[in-house]
Amino acid sequence: MTVSVMVVDDHPMWREGVARDLAERGFEVVATAGDAASAVRIAKAVRPDVVLMDLNLGELSGVDATLLITGELPGTRVLVLSASGEHDDVLQAVKAGASGYLVKSASAEELVDAVSRTAAGDAVFTAGLAGLVLGEYRRMAAAPGDSAEEKPQLTERETEVLRLVAKGLTARQIANRLVISHRTVENHVQSTLRKLQLHNRVELARYAIEHGLDSEPEAQR
To answer: What region holds the HTH luxR-type domain (predicted)?
Structure first.
C-alpha cells in the first residue's frame, strides 16, 4: 500500500525538493504547504498518512500545527523535519503529538526510512534524540502526581510488547525478540493504543515509563 505524505515547509525550494525526492521513492505526495494554517486546513482535506512538518513556520508554529493535526486527525502521523536539534524544540514537538523528529542534515535514505517507519507506527528520531525524549518522560514520571487512576487491563502479551516499545525497539525488533510476526506486533500495539486511548508509540512509551513498565524484566518465567 502506497504511503501518502504531505510536506510542510516555509522554504519553497526545500519543500518542493523534498516532495520530489519522496515521490521518486514511491511515496504519494498528496499536498504541500508553506505555513501552519494552510497545513492544518489542507491536512483535514486530504488526510495523509504522514505529515512531514517543519517547525519554523511563522506566527503559527509547526508545534501548533502538529497539535491541531494530531488532535483532529488520529489516523495521520506527524514526523518533524527541522534544522533545529535543540532539546526544547524536540520535547515540545513530541508533547504536541509528533511521532518522531528528524534533523534536516539527515540523508535522503534516512528520510525515506523515517517516513516509512512513521507510517508503520514506529517512533523515529535522529540518533541521540530518542534517549532525550525517554529521559524526559522518566523525569516526569518521577515527579509527584496523582497515581490513583485506574489502569486499563492489558493482556500479558500486550504488556510485554508495551515494555519493549518503552525500551525503544521497533516493531520488527520486537517481532524478532518475541519470535512472533511483525503483523502480530502491530495488532498488539493497535489494541493497546485503543485500550489506553493513545495515538502513537511515543505516547505508549510515556505511559509505560509512567507506570514503571520500562524497568520490569523482559520475560517472566
So the answer is: 147-212
- Delimiting residues of CATH 1.10.10.10 domain(s) in the chain: 156-215
Domain spanning 156-215 has what CATH number?
1.10.10.10
DSSP state of 54: -
Give helix 87-95 / helix 62-72 axis angle, nearest 10°.
20
Q: What is the DSSP letter of 34?
A: S
Continuous segment of H or E residues that includes residue 50: strand 50-53
Rounded to whole angstroms, the Cα distance separating 19 from 44 reads 19
Asked if residue 6 lies in contact with residue 50, where contact means CB atoms within 8 angstroms, the answer is: yes
Q: Which one is predicted more confidently, 159 or 49?
A: 49
Report which secondary-structure segment, H or E, holds 119.
helix 108-120
State the average pLDDT for the chain: 83
Range(s) of the chain covered by CATH 3.40.50.2300: 4-128
3-state SS of 165-215 is HHCCCCHHHHHHHHCCCHHHHHHHHHHHHHHHCCCCHHHHHHHHHHCCHHH
pLDDT one-digit tens code per residue, 140-194:
555 555 444 555 788 888 888 888 887 777 788 888 989 888 888 888 888 888 8
